[in-house]
Amino acid sequence: MPVHTVHAGDRKVLVGLIGAGIQRSLTPAMHEEEARHHGLRLHYQLIDLDRTGAGVEALPGLIQAVRTMGFAGLNITYPCKQAVIPLLDELSDEARVMGAVNTVVCRNGRLVGHNTDGTGWAWGFRRALPAADLSEVVLLGTGGAGAAIAHTVLRLGATRLVLVDREPARAQALADTLNAGHGAGRTRADADIARALQRASGLVHATPTGMDKLPGLPLPAELLRPTLWVAEVVYFPLETELLKAARRIGCPTVDGGGMAVGQAVGAFELFTGLTPDAHRMEAHFRRLVAQRPGG
Predict the structure, then answer these.
(1) Residues annotated catalytic, as ranges
(2) Which of 51, 68, 103, 114 makes the best surface tag, with the fewest CB within 10 Å?
(3) CB–CB of 137/201 below 8 Å?
(4) Is there a single domain that holds both residue 85 and residue 164?
(5) Which CATH number do you get for residue 99?
(6) 5: left (phi > 0), else alpha (psi -120 to 50), else beta?
(7) Domain for residue 124, yes or no?
């Protein structure tokens, strides 16, 4: 699909984020600052469902408003990554395979859904743990972000992937999809996190537990061991209780910042057609986190 390039001479590029509880998101600052380096005027609008107490039922109206207002694109986050799909005109191959959308590009009146979560997670993971053992990876949480990461872990070469979710049927459905697309027998669902971790080489955490508004550990700390690498998706706070517990016993770790930056890098290029400087965006992100109280 050809990439539409936004020229610096354009008056303004309007993009946004639809989700719930997103007021502390650093994505607007990352996009606006990177646009400035390219001589581009970009405004990034937060569209927070929590502000009005709305849920996914508000999506049709919001998507229609986006068409009318001339947005260049949208990021999509919890709880809308799957609910937005029927409202779009087209899906990229990546979004179709993953069954979730985190980026929507608006071109000539058509809305095209993409997913940069998987590539974003891989960017951060490879930088932090380039030699990680992928022989048996446990993924805790199989929602929108988790599903994208699951596909990516298998593409990175994981021999076995074990899915654990508080909704076992959702984990099994994803396991079936992954086995069909990546090779039979590579993925299984397990309702017991303790059993799943017994032979694991690594753990990816992809549930909201650990966020500022949902503090705590997503699993008993005693299930961790020093030979297990631990990758976190949550980035507010950057140092979650899970990462603290893992680092105390010597686990190699990856914080959620890498994925936050990586998915933004992909979205920026989709929105503008310009090639962002990923390292500059990460440096800016980490400065912003350091400046935030409780970040």
Answers:
(1) 81
(2) 68
(3) yes
(4) no
(5) 3.40.50.10860
(6) beta
(7) no
